[in-house]
Design goal:
Chain A is an alpha/beta fold. Chain A is built from 10 helices and 7 strands. Chain A has one domain. In chain A, strands 1, 2, 3, 4, 5 and 7 form a 6-stranded mixed β-sheet that branches. In chain A, helix 6 crosses helix 8. Chain A is globular. The model of chain A has no long low-confidence stretch (mean pLDDT 96). In chain B, 44% of the residues are buried. Chain B has an 8-stranded mixed β-sheet. Chain B has a 4-stranded antiparallel β-sheet with strand order 6-5-13-12, with no helix packed on it. Helix content of chain B is 27%, strand content 23%. Chain B has 10 helices and 13 strands. Classes of the chains: A alpha/beta, B alpha+beta. Chains A and B meet through strand 2, helix 3, strand 6, helix 7 and helix 9 of A and strand 2, strand 4, helix 7, strand 12 and strand 13 of B. Strand 6 of chain A pairs parallel with strand 4 of chain B.
Amino acid sequence: MSELTARVREIAKRLLDNQQVDVVFGWEKGTEPFSSTPVFIRRPEEAERLVFDEFCIHNLSTYLLDYRDGSEKIGIFVKGCDSRGVVRLLEDEQFTRERLYIIGIGCPGMKDPVAHALAASGLDGNQDTAGLSAKCRQCVHPNPVLYDELLGVQQEPHLRGERFAEVKQIEAMSTAERYQFFADIFSRCIRCYACRNICVACNCRRCIFEETRPQWVGRETNLADNMMYHVIRTMHVAGRCVECGECERACPVGIPLMLLNRKLIKDVNQLFGPYEAALSLEEGAKPPLSRYRTDDPDNFL
Amino acid sequence: MKTLAKTKIEAVLNQLAEKAEVYVPLKQGAISSFGVWSAAVSGENLALESLNTLMSPKSVVLPQTEKMYTFATSGQQAEVKEVCADSGERVIFGARACDTKSLNVLDEVFLTRGYEDAFYKARREKLTVIGRACAQPGPHCFCSSMGVDPLEPAGADVILYDAGEEFGWEPVTERGQALTNQLNEFLGDRELPKPSAAEFRTRVDIEGLPEKLNRMFAHPVWEELAAKCMNCGICTYLCPGCYCFDIQVKTRGQEGYRFRCWDSCMYPEYTQMAGGHNPRQSKHERFRNRFLHKLEFIHERYGTLGCTGCGRCVVMCPNGVNIVSIINRLREVDVDVR
């Protein structure tokens, strides 16, 4: 058992023993060496189920939404991106800081359990198992930005190369090339909404994609409706995406969702910035597109 | 036994494609699915050596989006212009037992108990299934636990047996025999050994489970099991046996069409009623429905399970929801705990 796993168990047990929290969000081992999965611990003796290893990739902050209407106090283990997810929810007023005890862990970068399962399964698909997961290879903020207690060591960004290199490649395409690129990736969307459901910034109580009166987005799985879905999803998290990469990780058909999100991160920063979402919790702070200023740029209108 | 040399597979597919839409397991970059064989498809993308495709072949009989009819309106009047039931000849080539058995489950749902779905029936009646015996299950496969014989794909018209350089080719229905006669020039004739029973790494005991679940609707274990589920539709859409659909309409001016499209019991909208009430408010209620449907309701109505153990959901769930672990947990809990 690693030292971090031991610390994680010890802290969870302490928080539950002291009744400081009602439930602890962490990870446990699944049925295979590469499966770590989210777990929600309520009894001190169950703290022994917790682990922290290289497959604890899930952003647990999204699960806070399952608890937003309650009053339970929650202990939550967060990596760098997960902690930005917590800030997202606090800034969006979906949760209150008082209900949380946050244990930060400097993140060494994670491997992708699904990619490993897929590679082992014999199913044909996207088997990207080399080293860190695709999402962690893009990571620029591995260290928790908000916590009550901190574990692990300070980490350097895992990104090698330039953050917006892929975005610039797409920007450099001709209109026709770009349309073809988007047509290729969106035509395979199966509209499972995993990218929406796993997203901490997708925290609306009633989602536009569930509206039926009126129905804003058609339910056909065709290029037009799929594009409409993705344009709305991406624009909706513009300036709010915490770059945790969960959407892209969850996508069963390998749509490069973070490429879209990163384009919006780049644009929001250029137009309204300098801005980097959810890097700290400040009283009353709002993302650029959630507030109005008379000097907001409008030359794109 | 008839045989099919692997070098002749493309010729056979070309021949079949002259008269039918032929669906073959295809590698398609980030994904794989049963796609249509055509001149534009390279033989290199044929995924016959892989265990299975990410997307199941259910879309051949139940497309994700299927146009039902077109209409035009005039004042208070509406007129159906064209009914779009699609009855072209189709062939599925190389489906495994988990997927062919699922077709049987879909047949029960769409063709029996006094109701026939005309759209499904039109597709199904002209479908020939060339199944494939599966002797080397993957680590996530558990079809044998769900009453599926991987060596004898149920519902197939022809069964292929892999024997290295060639396939054994065995017609098992009249339709399969007719297809065999058509393809005679491509087939050899010699005895080949049939593969022997496969070893499964993943097994699960379902003895008595449907009956037990009958008493577990209000059991607290569902909240525990659903905790890490995020209610996306991956499992339902990759599942070869999930068949729920919604019927919707698109209009433009005075014209429009009705279509159906896959729906998922994981979505809140699935049970949203016109008056605003939603009988499945919480995620554990939606989650519970999926598992009760597969493991109890379908069994109760049709005497078969809604899960055929293909393992796709186990592999692809981003949060590690695993139907095998769930069944094990359901078996272990005390049914009378409230």
